[in-house]
């Protein structure tokens, strides 16, 4: 994972602080510049990098550093706090409760890993004792229903979809009604993606959301999309009330910084990471341990 490289570069910048004999504004600025470069190379959006740098300068007092304290520690703490602040929108995501029926709608671009992630999410919660079900309201991508059906069957999770109905809104409504009657407490609705953000996708999302009244809308994002992540996440958030983010393909060559930027755009917490194509390659995301790991 290329994020590890980012961590390595930030650690190297911090380490240099320890080797500088005179810590003044200039040395501090150099260290911040180096951290900025590492973040930009990892596709963190320019705006965020700028605000991160400004905040570090505000919180770190060069005279503290000059006083002979552990400079690397002081800087590391400041960077840690800023990165955590970036990733933590300050409000938790919707909490699912066993036995309380809820609808979770998945949105995202085509190829982001939405369908795969729906099954992973269902499988993960079934292991925790929920009774999940899957509704395939993706009528745009040929084969989406077959894919969901295959995954759901493998995981032994009830599913609903149609080969003949072309209106995703109708499928979503029928599917949610069916599973409500059957007593599923976690009804997951997979919606259509598109190759790019477009008005028709957003209109469809709004309509599906209107009929299914989701308790939570999860935005699924491919970690490799880089700088485009910020605008993409913002566009989704402006169309429907995104409540949480799942970042996929963290096992690949993604730089990951784009994903960090997206979280800031949506002000929604990242709740899981997709780390492979298989059902179990899925892990909960917690800000502090993640940033700690990143900074080594
Ligand atoms: P959708 O169009 O958004 O529904 O995307 P799919 O669920 O069909 O996923 C697109 C491709 O990405 C498929 O080949 C998946 O196996 C793959 N994929 C999904 N999540 C991950 C992940 O976390 N890691 C990796 N390596 N591949 C993934």
TrEMBL record:
Interval of the full protein contained in this chain: 1 to 296 of 497
The organism's place on the tree of life at top rank: Eukaryota
MF GO annotations: 7S RNA binding; endoplasmic reticulum signal peptide binding; GTP binding; GTPase activity
Protein location: Cytoplasm; Endoplasmic reticulum
Keyword Signal: no
Subunit and partners: Component of a signal recognition particle (SRP) complex that consists of a 7SL RNA molecule of 300 nucleotides and six protein subunits: SRP72, SRP68, SRP54, SRP19, SRP14 and SRP9.
Keywords, ordered alphabetically: Chloroplast, Cytoplasm, Endoplasmic reticulum, GTP-binding, Hydrolase, Nucleotide-binding, Plastid, Ribonucleoprotein, RNA-binding, Signal recognition particle
Predominant localisation class: cytoplasm
Domain commentary: The M domain binds the 7SL RNA in presence of SRP19 and binds the signal sequence of presecretory proteins. The NG domain, also named G domain, is a special guanosine triphosphatase (GTPase) domain, which binds GTP and forms a guanosine 5'-triphosphate (GTP)-dependent complex with a homologous NG domain in the SRP receptor subunit SRPRA. The two NG domains undergo cooperative rearrangements upon their assembly, which culminate in the reciprocal activation of the GTPase activity of one another. SRP receptor compaction upon binding with cargo-loaded SRP and GTPase rearrangement drive SRP-mediated cotranslational protein translocation into the ER.
Catalytic activity as recorded in UniProt: GTP + H2O = GDP + phosphate + H(+)
Domain SRP54-type proteins GTP-binding residue range list: 269-282
GO biological process: SRP-dependent cotranslational protein targeting to membrane, translocation
Its job: Component of the signal recognition particle (SRP) complex, a ribonucleoprotein complex that mediates the cotranslational targeting of secretory and membrane proteins to the endoplasmic reticulum (ER). As part of the SRP complex, associates with the SRP receptor (SR) component SRPRA to target secretory proteins to the endoplasmic reticulum membrane. Binds to the signal sequence of presecretory proteins when they emerge from the ribosomes. Displays basal GTPase activity, and stimulates reciprocal GTPase activation of the SR subunit SRPRA.
GO cellular component: cytosol; endoplasmic reticulum; signal recognition particle, endoplasmic reticulum targeting
Recorded family membership: Belongs to the GTP-binding SRP family. SRP54 subfamily.
Protein name, UniProt field: Signal recognition particle 54 kDa protein
